[in-house]
Amino acid sequence: MKYLFLLTITPVQEFISHSRKLKDLYGGSHILSEMSRIGLEYAQKKGAVVIFPQKVEGTNSYPNRFLIEISFENEEDLKDFSKDVSDEVLGYFQSLNITNNKIVSQHIEDFFQIYWSASEYNGEYKEAFDKVENRLAGAKNSRFFTQLGEVGRKCSICGERNIAVYKKPMRFYIEEQRKNLVEAKKSDNLQHGEGLCGVCYMKRISKVKSFDSTADIAIMNIPLEIREKFNYLSQDSQLFYEENLDKSYFDKNDVDYPLEECLKEYKQFKGEIKDFKQTSYYAVVMFDGDDMGKWLSGQKLNDTSKLKEFHKDISLNLAKFAKRAREILKEPKGMTVYAGGEDFLGFVNLNNLFEVIKELNSEFSTLISEPLQEKYNITDNFTFSAGIVIAHYKTPLGTVLSEARKSEKKAKKNSGKDSVCLTVLKRSGEIRESIFKHKKVEIVKNIVNQLKENFSDSFISNLEREFLMMVKEDGKLDLKKSLLTSEINRLLNRSKKSDDAEVDMMTELVSSIYTKEFRHFSDALAIAKFINREIQ
Ligand SMILES: [Zn+2]
Q: Regarding beta strands 384-392 and 281-289, do their DSSP bridges make them parallel or antiparallel, or are they unpaired?
């Protein structure tokens, strides 16, 4: 009997987003990909034919779910297989030899849930696929939640499980609790006073090569050749920021370089980067394909008998895009954390943000949407909507990731999707947020360029102040477009830096991002102003 078999490893979001360092995040994403790879390879050894994910040469990243076609003599064999494949996936942790501490292994064992479903497949692909999808959703819904209810000190990162590994000094209210726990080794990279549960610990000590912190991304526009001249500072990018050159940061992070020498290096560093702008901010970009459910269910197809081939093509095109995305977003522009399946998560240096978004969007269309439209005669565009959050490198990473997820959701609510929601989380606590279509990214970029060259950004605060008085209770601006345009023109004339400044062109740029929802308009301008001040 032939079956379609769908397997998914959960929980992904919880696992990924509980991260303090960029390294935790990257480690977590690598672990998930490895688990999925192991499961898939095991299934292939048992004769499975993969429907998704399809692979392209030179990539090694696996999404957290796979769909295969596989034959068994009877249902018993299918059940055995599903148990074995789950054991293989979870067996990955034994191979890591993390520690023989029982609490650590218990945390890891309890954390991951492997769900699978199968349906008989006698050539009717769509029917079998719908069934296997529905069954998996049902299995996930019936998940039995175990209440942990442990007493004791909670993990510094997730706050959910108890501490399993800690670094001194750590006070326990009940000293007895300490004795079953492991004290971290120096190479484990825990901060003083940090205590991690087994799951968060596993991510932290992952051997995969990654940038350590978000400061690495923020500093990337300062050329590596310059940064590497500074022996001490270049060991930890946070040391390129003066606020960390003090005893409390050094103690907490086990930095054992002489502070005096570091301060000396910092002075020289500032001298060397006079031509560059150093920023403390970076951007997170998170997206997945719009209407994935509709695309996968075959709603976009004229002929659903081609659904299986269509699935393979979608998956193959996504894999091609993922490979390309990793080439686009890498040092010195930033780093890709994961790209695979339909999901993408990357960190971008602010100086490259607009260029990276534009390029990703254009490649998504070229590598995924256009080939599908052509081959299957589909008129709809396959698009993506992105949450982009600009944050200070000291803002807790978990907060930034959850804001990025919220932004992504807001972008997806924009009519027609194909949108971005751009949010700035300032260190001061001020938040600015604007939602617009991908095609407007270029306009915002041009406004930033014009601010750099030709206009003082004072017109933005003037405009905001003036128009805010005319905003109605529903947040909409009560003003004719022609009046708005002439007022923008007048304000720009007052803030041009030279007589050559093209006021009319800038007026058109600014007016073209106008939306009735005044806040989206004024926030888009405020974000442009913010980015301009932070980049070169
Ligand atoms: Zn934890």
A: antiparallel
Distance from the CA of 113 to the center of ligand 1, in angstroms?
Answer: 16
Confidence of residue 4 (pLDDT cuts 50, 70, 90): very high
pLDDT in tens, 155-167: 999 998 999 999 9
CA 161 to centroid of ligand 1, rounded, Å: 6
CA angle 286, 220, 269 (to 5 degrees): 150
CA distance 178 to 168: 11
For residue range 452-469, list pLDDT tens digits in order: 999 999 999 999 999 988
Q: Name 310's Cβ contacts closer than 8 Å, sequence gap at least 6.
A: 298, 301, 372, 376
Query: Helix 102-111 vs helix 75-96: angle between axes, to the nearest 10 degrees?
Result: 140
Separation CA 439–CA 362 (nearest Å): 10
User: Where in 426-520 does DSSP place strands (E)?
Assistant: 431-437
152 in Cβ contact with 162 (< 8 Å): yes
Lowest-confidence pick of 119-133, 162-176, 477-491, 517-531: 162-176
Residue 119: half-sphere exposure toward Cβ, Cα within 13 Å: 18
Give the distance (Å) from ligand 1 centre to CA of residue 163: 7
Question: What pTM value is reported for the model?
Answer: 0.94
Rounded to 5 degrees, φ, ψ at 258 are: -65, 125
Separation between Cα atoms, residue 160 and residue 174, nearest integer Å: 19
Residue 162 Cα to ligand 1 midpoint, Å, equals 7
Cα–ligand 1 centroid distance for 394 (angstroms): 20
Give the Cα separation of 276 and 172 in Å (integer): 47
Domain boundaries, the chain: 222-272, 278-429, 441-536
- Predicted pLDDT at 533: 97
Mean pLDDT estimate for the chain = 93
Note the pLDDT of residue 304.
93
Q: CA 376 to CA 303: how far, in whole Å?
A: 9
Distance 18 CA to ligand 1 centre (A): 7
Q: Which of 113, 117, 8, 3 is nearest to 53 (CA)?
A: 8
Measure 154 CA to ligand 1 centroid, in angstroms.
8
Question: How remote is the CA of residue 202 from the centroid of ligand 1, in Å?
Answer: 9
Q: What is the whole-number distance in angstroms between the Cα of residue 10 and the centre of ligand 1?
A: 16
Report the alpha-carbon distance of residue 76 to residue 72 in Å, rounded.
Answer: 9
Domain 278-429, architecture per CATH: 2-Layer Sandwich (3.30)
Model pLDDT for residues 114-157, shown as the tens digit of each residue:
999 999 999 899 999 999 999 999 888 765 555 555 677 899 99
201 alpha carbon – ligand 1 mean position (Å): 7
